[in-house]
Batch of 4 targets.
Target 1
Amino acid sequence: MLLKNPAFSLVAILTLALGIGANTAVFSVVDKVLLRPLPYPEPERLVTLTMRTTQRDQMVALTPVEYYFWLQNSRVFDAFSVTSGAAYNVMTDEGTQNLDGIRVTSAFFSAIGVQPVLGRGFLAEEDRPGAPPVIVLSYGVWRDFYGSASDAVGRSVLLNDKNYTIVGVLPDGFTFAGAPRAVYAPLMLVPDPKDRGRNYTAVARLKRGVTIETAQADTDRVYQEFLTAYPDYKSREVIGFGLTSYQNLVTDNIHPLLNVLLAAVGAVLLIACANVANLLLSRAAARRKEIVIRAALGAGTGRILRQLFVESLVLSAVAGIVGVLLAFWGVDILVAMNPTLNSRAAGATLDTRVFIFSAIVSLATGLFFGLSGALHARRIDPNETLKAAGTHGHNPQHRRLSNVLVVFEVALAMLLLVSASLLMMTFYRLQAIRVGFNTENLLAVELPMLSERYKTAAAVDRFERQLRESVKSIPGVLSVATASGAPLVRTLNYTASIEGQSQSRPFYIEYRSVSLEYFETVGIRISRGRSFVPTDTESSLPVVLINERLARRFPADVDPLGQRLTLAKGAPHEEAPREIVGIVSDVSDRPPGAPVASTVYVLRLQTTDGFNQLANQIFNSACLIRTAASVDISRQLRDALVRIDPRMPIARIRTIREIASGSIRQQESNMFLMSVFAGAALLLTVVGLYGVLSYQVVQRTREIGVRVALGASGGQILRIVLKRGMILAGLGIVTGIGAALGFTRLLAGLLYGVTPANPWIYIVTGLLLSAVAFLASYIPARRATRIDPLVALRYE
């Protein structure tokens, strides 16, 4: 029966395949990221700490003092560890390579539940300052750098110009923090009460049999004891520490997006099912005589229903196979397009679980749209049908069901179009945000200053001075500057306090170390005061420039110029007070839409060794190059670097525009994916509305012929058909607005500069959908005006 109607079968299969394929692709990613447990033994026992505030719980990093206090006083953990990111330069035959690094405390491998397959993990005495440096290699590093040699354990390797002994190799497939090729080293924390930096993420393994409620009660006890021991840590906003599964930490920022995508592709699938259900209703009307003859020949109702359901299931099964084939490409596209998914969903494949999901979806869709044809078949009266053998009347119940399905499709399309429009508006608003300087023809060369040779600020300054002089000689280069980090990229977070203001509490600032030419090269405006000058040297009075955001922290009657700031107040690396000599315009250093941070700029020559070492461990330094035009100078840059320091690798070369666009790439991806789903929904809805009205025009051929014979004009016939189509579309739009108001609450965390209930979005989207519905209705309406009454009255 399906082969006898190839056009119908092809349209139905492709429509369903689109919906099933999209759902299968998104589910495979959801399964990989959210549903599957972490790839560690007994992952349900892995937890991390959160900060419970008066407003909401938030993920938190610990200070060294907090870590040691929990380690010594908690009673519910088999192992308690903290981790921090790092990086290592390693020399190879091809030159220096930059490797991901993860610094961990000695209990890390016990906490995560994975032990090295060669050698061992870290001993407690190796996690103390001054201990001989040791490392554990990931399987990928061991394979790529040592050819999987079993005698690699015990060898010495030069990392960051320092000799480390390899003590272990981790199992194949082990990944932590999204770094499959990484070097693990002891963290060697010192529990200094002055160190208030929250830079270490907790990973703990609960004892067997301990529930999360029991563990939380113990955490509350430890927190109260901690405040008794360290009352200075008490805060009005913080009410305690909470426990959450480590999987929540891993998936926290991707959960809302995947929920939205899953709901969106589900809506597309429902629209596809409604479309095919309408196709089957139309086809069932044409098969009325066939079904009556089968009944007359002895087929019972059950047998006829079985046949119709089998045909529906065959359609959905074939569509499921085609949809799975489409999903193979869909998964790769989905992961490649979305930067947040890149590290989390890498390796997402269509495995047995996904195939089972696809089979269930195919079965459910077959039953869903097959039900409409079965219900229609049950209502066929053989006697009435045979009496009406010479007519082609319409069935009111059939028409009502078709109309309901069209309204359902339009409502879902409206929901997806509103969601896509909100994300488009978010992307537009983020693009319109000014970054605070000219990004045209500005290049950032990121350099990992990890070598022991660059431990002091003076050594960094000597290297960068040579680099600036060498790069200036490259044709097309207008100016060059160096800094502790590229603009628009976060850098070291410090505390600061205003000297002479007893009411001033320490506050957090972004600390940027820059060369003399920085503001001129980047194009940052000096609002008041002066920039750095050549007379500002390491032996002169320490000075600092601040941004306008930080200047607003001063009382209205106090001029920030001439005031003194103390950086890292109370910390082991506290700096001498610095005089504020200038105020510069605000520059974004966080994702667009986030508040601008209070920022201080310190001259490279006057940077302390303490800051220099901290920054080098975590961030890449940057050489910023302003060129006369968009030219490729990467080869000349590498040649210049080789002449100065052959062992210095280049981490990345990017234009500032690439950095700026990369910061909103996530929003661009969200917008694109939702727009694709909304476009598919709109196309399917238009096809569905057009198909229903076209079929209803055919069903009403005799009625239209009678109307024309009695004097109805072409305009009147046109209005009758258009009115029916626009009423269906209007009902769908109104229903869709109500559904969208509820659904778009899921989008709230993905929006910026626009509210989920923005009325203009709903008005414009409603008008767009109305216009498309009008066009879909107009073609069948025009066809109705061309019906010849003589032909219509002789019809069949």
Target 2
Amino acid sequence: MRLSIFILLWGFCSVIASAQMPFGGNKGPSIKGKITGIVLDSTTNEPISFASVALRKAGKTDFLDGVLTEINGNFKFNEVATGKYEVVISFLGYQEKIIKDIETTLKSPDLDLGKISLRQNSVLTEAVEITGERALIENKVDRLVFNAENDASIAGGDATDVLRKVPLLSVDLNGNVSLRGSESVRILINGKPSGMFSNNVADALKMFPADQIKSVEVITSPSAKYDAEGSAGIINIITKKSNIEGLAGSVNASAGIRQNSLFTNLNAGKGRLGLSSSAAIFYSNPANGRITFDRTENIDEVVRVYSQRGNQCTSRLGGNGNVSAFYDFNGYHSINSSLNFRGFGFDLEGRVDGFLSQSDIMGRNDFFRTNNANNFFGGYDWNTDYTMKFENQKDRELSMSFQISKENNNQEADVLEEHTVLTFINRDARIFNEGENTELTFQVDYTHPLWKGAKLETGVKGVLRDIVSDFNNQVKDPNTGLYNSIPEFTNIFDYNQDVYAGYGSLNFIVAKKYSFITGLRYEGTRIGGAFRTPVENTPMVENDYQNFLPSFTVSRNLKNFKSIKLSYNQRIQRPSLFFVNPFNNNSDFLNRTIGNPELLPEITHQIEMGYNTSLLGFTIFSAVYYKRTEDIIEQILKVEETGASVNTFDNVGTNNSFGLNLFTSKSINKLTLRVGGNFYTYDAQGIVNNIELNRQSYEYNLFLNGDYTISGSIKMDFFGFFRSPRRTLQGDTPSFSIYGMGIRKDFKNSSIGINVIEPFQNDKAFDSEQTGPNFTQFNSFTIPFRSIGVNFRYKFGSVDFKERKSKIKNSDLKNGEGGGGVPAGGGGVGI
């Protein structure tokens, strides 16, 4: 069945291609170029920063594009079609200048206007000073863009440090990312999915040094062309890797008391062929943390107390790399292929001492447990895209894409445990789990212009996911010294999830003021899962469902750069390997963790209204929204009569949430401040452990960041962030806060900087609490937090960048939580 559907998909794309490909009638290429220059003061010959530069067709009055000059006076217009143009340059206190007779051709698509001098006006307005900057935050029709590449305070960190500074996002201690209170987000890398996020998002983000990240896009209301990725939206991380014309490279090195990294890239391009490569390695110094765990149970008037105190040391070592190539057959046909690979190790070593007491017969049982855990996450993604454009139809395009993605998740722990009373659970054991997630994706997308300002986008897609979880618990025989498997903890689980989708999306403009994006997406899902060796009371998992997912967005541009937007969309969030893995992790025998392969997807309906304006020099982004999520997936804790507990996941019920997002920025001379926050309600009703529960609460996060230009080559950044506890029907996860600053000195081809995180607090504690009808549980862990590091960057070469992105965006899985492959609040392969 799966093979036949793929054949049908291939037949669909072949019919379109054979009907549309102009191989015999191609009249010539159509390649865009760029226009560059530098604006100088005619008297002092000094660069003029932040001057307005506008581009228009020769003889026309309407502008096609506009930019501000950089601090060094340079400006650039990218993606300029061949033709005749005029450039208009203006700045307060200077005479406007119009450069005419500008022409780009197929032979010479790139044009450098060189030095352009502006004359000062004879009469200057007294005591007026205007400053500006290249925007750190951009608000576009369907997304918010955070430009991170020049932020000194994140140098030497990882991707979580970058995401913490992005408006609308919230990142907790472990690196779990949420948008508007929901962790049902899908993270893409350069517009492409990655198998690295199939198991644990928090650990995957720690694979990325911050120096690799150019910008972050947040899409809260995706159109029908995007995968039905979940209740919150899409986070697209854009790296600094690009295909180029020329030869260039760079080296970024960071060293500190917490994290160390090295990132290199080398790119080469000539004519219609380009090659790019990059590699990164990072190491987190060992960090010693403290653990506190207390649970009080009252079952049939019997009071039981379970308590632990201990220490654990963690460290991380990993790396990633990328090799990509593109070739333009001509101006209409091109192919692009890339291979991304990664590896990431997470090691843990520690000991806890504790006791279990019971008020009736047992008395007090003391115990200790040591744990030495080694975890490895690794994999690769290979993407190949073919794109065909059409002569004399600028926006018409057909693309065919294929991707294979594989992710390995191997966990191993040696556990030694001894009890004074409950000696029957004494053990010297090894715990294994080898998880493998393989995805095959085939996709066809077609864009057809209808009339001026309107286009139709359609496409089909198939995703075949095969997940294997091989787990094994072994106990050491004291007589032979050999480890023997425990039958009930030894098995292989196969899980298949196939998704077939098709969409149609219509984009058009009405009355030159209203922009519409409306569409419908269909997604069919087939799920099957079973143990290779039958396990008692564990039936085969089978589930098929179909979803029709509408979306609608209308925006209106107002005067003075104001805009308003209204949108509605319906999304689906399927659980990933992290949630469905049935591995019974009993590193802590009395507080086990296990996945749930019978989980259903979350379904979300969202209505959003956004308004952007400028007032008294403040740039303001705001949005209000309502979101209803059905079959919400939450981690739940069940305490058994034996005193042991099980952490798992379940579709607990429904959550209705109202929210407000607010962000504003203000520039004062050389200082720019940005402040904002998110406030949203948690109003959930559901059933947990066969008991009906409801809870009404709220969550919020606040942030403040900014930068100060000390001189033309020295810049300082600072930031602070606070997130309230995240709510569930059973309790709260820890709140989180962080602050820091960085300073950087730029040279011609290099820079050096220093960054500091929490300079006045070496350690920080994080507390969480869960409650049920017969228990109360409290967790606390303390880790080193103060961080000081230095960063060095060096670049060489001269290039013309040509961004190329895959059409494949697998964004439909709900991703994992918690650090180190351990669900928050669970035992994990840990102490």
Target 3
Amino acid sequence: MDAYDLYDETRHPFFRRMSLIKEGISQIVLELRGGMVFINYLKTAVRSMSRQKIYSLINIMGLAIGMTMAILILSWVRDEYKYDRFHHHAGRIYRVSQFFSRGGLTTKVADTPAVLAETLMLECPEVEWATSVRGESSGELVAYGDEKFHETGIGITDNLFFKVFSFPFVEGNPETALALPGTVALSQRTAKRYFDDSEPLGRTLNFYGKDFIVTGVFQDMPHHSHFHFDLLCSKASFERYTSPRWEMSQFKTYLMMHDSGGVESLQARLNEIAATRMFGDGYAAWAAKGNSKTLPLQKLTDIHLQSDLKYEFEENGNSLYVRFFMVIAVFILWIAVINYINLSTARSAGRAREVGIRKTVGSTRVMLIRRFLFESVLTSCAALTMTFVLIQSALPAFRMLVGKSWLVTPYQEQPLLIPGLIMAAVMIGVLSGLYPAFILSAFKPIAVLRGSSGGGMKSSRFRNGLVVFQFTLSVFLLTGTLIVQKQMDYVRKKDLGFNKERVIVLKTLGQVRNKLPVLKETLLQNPEIQAVSASSTLPGKEFDYVGFHVEGTNDSWPGTNCIAADAHFIEVMDAEMVRGRYFSKEFMTDGRALVLNESKVREIGADDVFEKGIRIGGMGNEPFHVIGIMKDIHYEPLHEPVKSLGIVMLGGACTWPESFISIRIRSKNIHDTLGGIRKIWEEVVPGVPFQFTFLDSITSDQYRNEIRTERVFAVFTLFAVFVACIGLLGLASFATQQRTREFGIRKVLGASGKRLVLMLSGEFVRWVVLANVIAWPMVYYVMSKWLNNFAYRAGIGILPFILSGFIMFIITGLTVSYHVIRAAGMNPVESLKCE
């Protein structure tokens, strides 16, 4: 080895080892320096936030509230999209509906004939399984020994129900549980309630006047099912449901296809069945007039959000509302992020000297961008921490607001979403702080140390544009809320053709029957009771849809909603007769008489409907004769025009039982009157639960979706405006602080405090005016689409726009007034001392 080799670091082992040690030490230094940099960034961020506590609090609170509202809304949206997707073959399950189109009016119902499912199984190779289900919405009294239970979740179905739907059995065999007459399957909670921990199979329950043997127990149906049953009894137990009667539509038909490729051919076959089996020989002539009757297929997973049919098992959701609230969630989050960007860019002027000094001592632009982005991300992460606290505090109230007691936030079901939320918070921090960071890092040291931040800070167009955008969203939500409230007020106050006030409704549970005359007579002895009536259903409840055929014509007519009521129904409802008369006990022939509403008479189009005999499906071959025409009543929601209606005499040719007793009272002292009614009920019908409601509540329940939307819309609009005002408060405070010296100079030159207030307030007023001008056309378009859901609507009008604009002016004035007046009233000497 020569001398050269001795000192060659690349060849001598000693120098190679020393080089490796030096590299290791350098790496350690870099790592320590990185940790120190992080600590330094953290200290700087905390000091900056502590120096300006109000702005930091506004930033954190604004982002936290925005993220809280967005996560809560998205939790509800996620829950809405989960319906009916738990079934193993959900993608292959469809429901058959009925559409009738006549004279430009389309009636859409979910009910179909009971025989349709069997027909599909026999004649349609595309169908693997088909089942039919009927729900008893009015409830029934179920007896087990000496105990009686009021059940509203009773369903009637066949043995193929558990082939189509995935409701696992806990006990019994789903293959045979409902195969025989007189069998019933119970949900787990119902079996527990009836039999506690004892064996349920083989026990006997009595309802519908029949004995049913428990043959199975299935798991409770999930919340995310569009129907819920606690007792499922076999359709074979009822002769009237097993006979092949195409004129009676009282069941929902579901089918599971072999694969999804045969939908078109099956749909064609269904339409053929509608024309040949359900309608009769007169379909061709009827269709030639532009009319139609079809049996459209609906995907099971579309029912909850896409279906708007009559006679649904339960209230469905609305895809329009889901999309709308998704937009609201994004709007609120945008408003919160805009607040942050506005305050960050405004505050950047106050940190100009800090930037100049840091650049002077060697900080590069990349280092400054990294530092300020770190502060922004730290703020958003602090907001996320507060968001988790706010969500857990607000979740119980939110569940009540949306009517979903089971609702949980997404990260409670999927904890892996928490890292995703953290990443989202980091992204929000980066995106929110990106613009301010680049603005701050671009300052020139010489300019800022002289007291000028350069041209970049002189222009506030970007910040003003964000404020206008923020107020545009707020005006949009506020105006939309006012329009929704206006329509719902119209719905509540519209004349429905009957008087829904002061009518008490009792559920009979099928237990009154022969005691009805005594009950009515005893009730009428109370001087506070004006009239008592029994009926099979009521306005706001489900009506039976039956076939009508006018004799002496070659035309066949689509079905009609029908109700069985006694002679006092029109008196209790306070409805009006247009022609003829209503039922009366004095006429023995009224047992086969018929009262039609005006819409049905127009639909029939007969010259003299009183001379026409009308056959009604399921009520024998002997025709009914029309004795009167009643003024149209809105017995369905105002989303649809008034539909045709036929009323038959309760206890006459119609064998439908009374389900409700309606009592019109004179007194406003409802509490005492109810006490008297309860006492009479318990004396005449002992052992039957006294269950009452009010007719106005029943009719209001038809708009449960809209009422809930109104409440949710109002609450989240309030929060959106609140978040916007938080940002406006911070911006007003900073704006007045930055112009303190300007105000002092203006006051020295003779400007009055009033003039200064008007000058600064005018800037905010201009923003609000521009926001209203931008928002109003958008609100008009969107709310016009929403109002199209109603056949009867109040219209939009100009008042909601004027009122929302006025409210925003007041809110803006109250938000900025304190800081503006305080700055304008400051002593000029003190103002000129301000740096």
Target 4
Amino acid sequence: MGTRAATTRRSFLAVAGVAAAGLAVDAYAGHRPQRAVGRLVRTAGGLQERPRDGAREGSRPDSRPAAVRLLAAPATVDLGGRTVSTWTFNGELPGPELRLRVGEVLRARLENRLPAATTVHWHGIALDNRMDGVPGLTQSAVAPGQGFDYEFSVPDPGTYFYHPHVGLQIERGLYGPLVVEDPGEVVRYDHEAVLILDDWTDGVGPSPEAILANLQRGGMRHAGQAGGTHHGHHGAGAAATFDPTSPLGADAGDVRHPLYLVNGRSPRSPTVLRGRPGERIRIRIVNTAADTAFRLAVGGHRLKVTHADGFPIRPVTGDALLIAMGERYDVQVELGDGVFPLVALAEGKDAQAFAVVRTSLGATPRANVRPAELDRWVVTVADLDAAGAVDLGRRPVSRTHRLVLDGNMATYRWTINGHAHHGAAPLAARQGERVRLVFENRSAMFHPMHLHGHTFQVRRAGERRPGPRKDTIIVRPLERVTVEFDADNPGRWMLHCHNAYHQAGGMMTTLAYEP
């Protein structure tokens, strides 16, 4: 297939099939790469165009852009054959897809109709510190019945998402995709989809708060030690399993969720992607799960990985892809002829999320199918190098921070350098410095460590390869990972484990710029 002209595109959240009626909406019909007139916002009624810079007939070109409304409120949603009451943005699961061009301004009005205070964090965006959505650090939590106006420019193209930064609210339906397009990008695919992976308990199992309380009461089965730290598993009704073959280590999670979802749909009535044989699809994959890393594969296909956490890499083609909580990857797939399973294996949990790729007539694969690709080459961050245009390059490091990750499973207390939450002095940085972070994991569980407001570059010991640019990095048990970033976005920023239960148990700290 030839290279298409550089354009921006309208994407879609892949449409769920209606299994009971044997139907699936053709999500690709008439959907080709094209230039967007303005910002695109996906709502229950479809994509709505918002004129660039708020321009309307008769308005001045410098008018402020229209605000997106995000209503956080209780809602009833269908998880694919099972209806539950949960919390959502705008009554949708996932929440509205927000789409801008690089450099544009996003204005979003959060209206809180929840029975609890909340915020919106714009995950992965190097934005104005005041807009980062961390209560007690960048803003006050938005009380029930109140609102907050977020306004910031989006400096980097890529795949991002938004979610609250209060307690365990991400364990409900409060999340949605944010896509920043690069108008100069050369398009080499026919279609685009956004897939959001999630683990789910709200309304079908114990509440997230009940799970955390049980963990903190020692509700895990102790199964050994590593680095002085007890480990084991707690299940939301059933214990998770140990998998010695997992690329994350044998202990890959604390919570066995009742359901694992793709775009809010369970395997009972799965999300369906449709296309034609030979077409190429770009899939933007977002892991919003609280406690689950996924190993994703499409039966009968290979995955060409092109972006990590929004930033381009030197493309790598493998059979499956490992994606932890908070990470995002873009892949390209050349579609075969038939009906194929898209499986996101929940690492270490003997369960999986499931979707369908359909290019012709045929029977839908069984929801518990395990494609052979899952057991072949699993692409991980170790396989990835930054594309030249986004390589930070080598320069003297001004300061180094060592972060020792540890935990006590008996009390479910997770620490950085021996301190939980904000018990330690903030990590210092000064505008213009090159800062090195060295993560040392002394626990028996992996931690996806996420830095707000910046992206860093992975550095590998003894190698000159330009590691990928990321904002979330997996640190496996007893592993040391080194990253570097440029201190170019002043403020006070969170740095934490993106396992929601580890974060609630204390594994977070602060990066603070000095005058």
